[in-house]
Amino acid sequence: MGNLIKVLGKDLENCPHFFLDFENAQPTEAETAVWNQVSAVLEEAHGILAELQSYNGAGQEIREAIQNPNDLQLQEKAWNAVCPLVAKLKRFYEFSLRLENALRSLLEALTSPPYAPMQHLEREQALAKQFAEILHFTLSFDELKMTNPAIQNDFSYYRRTISRNRLNNQQLEAENEVNNEMANRMSLFYAEATPMLKTLSNATTKFVSENKTLPIEDTTDCLSTMACVCRVMLETPEYRCRFTNTDTMLFCMRVMVGVIILYDHVHPVGAFAKTSKIDMKGCIKVLKEQPSNSVEGLLNTYCILSTPKVIKHKANPFISAVD
Hints:
Radius of gyration: 22 Å
Distance between the termini: 42 Å
Order of helices and strands: EEHHHHHHHHHHHHHHHH
Largest sheet: 2 strands, antiparallel
Number of helices: 16
Structural class: mainly alpha
Strand content: under 5%
Oligomer: single chain
Shape: elongated
Number of domains: 1
Strand order of the largest sheet: 1-2
């Protein structure tokens, strides 16, 4: 097919090779309903990343308030600085819930009978592109979050202030927007090193457990095929030269790492087992051939989100790649 081309490689029998046009794939009529639903969510993704990238926190105001506990003016200044930031953090968290629902819709579309996962990726390229865009956003968000301690510091100060005022029988107006239940859920979300990726991992695991009539292999094969697609495009000069945007290389790397992590969480024995359909050594080789500043965050993300299944594999190439 036009944008999705089989590549006859020397190890084709072990791993399906495809070139998927992540830049230009457009939805067919059959894809339109799901594509529109997911597109409405993805339209917000760029704005979310921009807000997170510009998130500076209220560290100075919080420090002054803590150092001068009896200065009511400084307490109010810190509170007024933190409240709009917490409202922003709430929007990020609520977006993660919408992203989770979008992922579920894509998983249903890309694994449903009568087609095999590979056939779905071949027939529904626009949905595969959206799946990749969700993973790209997720790892981009988490890379920014991991390097910004102000997020947890601000939210911790907010919760401490709320608790202190409750003890004094005072209720602050901001509690109406972020009630105790919401604050608890947000706290669990931001306590994760990679909250968006953890959300998607849990959502994928839940999707598998709730769809008992759907073989788990349908989901894991979808993920392993996507990982192979990205690896082939990254390691093959003829296909890299098709990228018209220089950012597509990083896009492919993020997507490859993201699907490997999801595969590792969903597959019963993980991504590093001999039965895994992902060429882990090939994926690591491709990453290590890229500039270190492009892949260091991705490798660290994987190590942080490694499961006990991964830890058991002493020859984990992701771990050794960052040693």
